[in-house]
Amino acid sequence: MLEYFIETQQHTLFLALLLPPLGISVSRVGGRPAFRRFLVGLAAGAGAAVALALLKTFTGWIVTEYWSMGFMAGVLLFGALFLLADLRLVFRRNERRAQGLLLWSALLLAAFLAAYVLRGDLVAIREFIQADESLFDVAVVYRALGWLGGLLVVALCAAGTTVAARGVTENALRPLRSALLLVYLVYGILSTVQILYAHHMIPRASWIRAVLQVSINQGDAFLYASMALTVALVVCALVAQRRSLAAARPGQATAAPEAAPTADPPTSSPSSPSQTNPALWRKARAAWRRVRRWGTVVVAGMAVTVLSLTVGVAYNERGIELSPAEPLEYVGTTVQVPLASIEDGHLHRFAHVTEAGTEVRFIIIKKNATAYGVGLDACNVCGPTGYYERDDQVVCKMCDVVMNKQTIGFPGGCNPVPLGFEVKEGVLSIELSLLEQEAGRFE
């Protein structure tokens, strides 16, 4: 349950903090029609995510990394266009062309963001039920509760961020919104470079690998940065509402000196404190209370997230060590593993040391009566961090994603990189050349 609670916040909270400021800006520039189109963009992105999750579940057509790169390319393109249009509106506030570019880029940005983020969350739902479980097993219920609990925290933070964004002026919202978007764009660039690097689509320079290692190991820093910017937004909203409250506070009526009676009734200056409209005071006080309450909800939700990503992750990953490599038999140009040693359905780890001294690890697991999952102890997303077994499940040590055993041996997502093999006469054989050419992943 805990891993699903953590993963849902990791994957979705960034989106929940970024979308409300975008939506508020769209409504201020284009009114309700533009905001409705913005919501349509979100719905379209969510629909695309659902379609891809279904295709991923029931077909072999979807290669996760390539779709992720496509969606992120859209996020980067329309995010950059939004920032350019927003910058132009700083100097030319009422320019129609810049307003139109901002509205359409926000719509398409929302669609690509929703598709990119929700696709991973929906695919994760497939892992609720393992091959030997029913819908009402306790483990399945716990996983679902963890996922729903994470979504609840995200939803509360999104609602509070929306209230805070409404409580500040556009001039105060713009720099915080731009910073939030820039943080996400940097995160998106590094995620894309990571996939390109893993697939040998860009040079495998040492400095690129060093940057990617830092971004992977400190990946939550981007989420923390967005949370800090959102807290700053809440503070700005509280200050703005406090000022409005002070300006609307009714003044105390003061005694006026007696004057000689006249034919006309006495009049008071409309600008005197005693003439302040009590309705405006009550409205300002209600707005202040609303921002204060929802600001507290946002801070509390972020505190839960920080605890989840620190204490929760440390607890969930306590004492995780990769099992030692089991012995291999070298026969000619192959390495061989007797089937009798891997018939128990558990994860078995092996290692081949290349001529250059690099240890190339791979794993084997029996999936069913006739099928074996064979792959490197590494993936295209998280690198050579390895996999371990937890509660009869295969889990990525880096990102804590639970593997569907039936998909091990197939490409995509965080699955182990597949290895070609042959089963014959009670022995599973792998060509040494396949292991040698993958040595670069483990250097």
Topology:
Blueprint: H1 2-58, H2 64-91, H3 96-125, H4 138-166, H5 170-198, H6 206-217, H7 220-248, H8 278-316, E1 329-331, E2 334-338, E3 348-353, E4 359-366, E5 372-376, E6 387-390, E7 393-396, E8 402-403, E9 422-424, E10 427-431, H9 432-436
Antiparallel strand pairs: 1-2, 2-10, 3-4, 4-5, 6-7, 7-8, 9-10
Helix pairs in contact: 1-3, 1-4, 1-5, 1-7, 1-8, 2-3, 2-5, 4-7, 4-8, 5-6, 5-7, 7-8
3D architecture notes:
With 443 residues, this protein is an alpha+beta fold. It has two domains: 2-241 and 285-314; 329-442, Rieske [2Fe-2S] iron-sulphur domain (Rieske Iron-sulfur Protein, 3-layer Sandwich), CATH 2.102.10.10. It contains nine helices and ten strands. The chain has helices at 2-58, 64-91, 96-125, 138-166, 170-198, 206-217, 220-248, 278-316, 432-436, and strands at residues 329-331, 334-338, 348-353, 359-366, 372-376, 387-390, 393-396, 402-403, 422-424, 427-431. The strands form three sheets. Strands 1-2-10-9 form a four-stranded antiparallel beta sheet. Helix 2 (64-91) runs antiparallel to helix 5 (170-198). The longest helix has 57 residues, at 2-58. It starts with a helix and ends in a 7-residue tail after the last helix. Residues 252-275 have low confidence and may be disordered.
Mean pLDDT: 81
Major sheet characteristics: 4 strands, antiparallel
Beta-strand content estimate: 5-15%
Say what oligomer this is.
single chain
Report how far apart the termini are. Answer: 34 Å
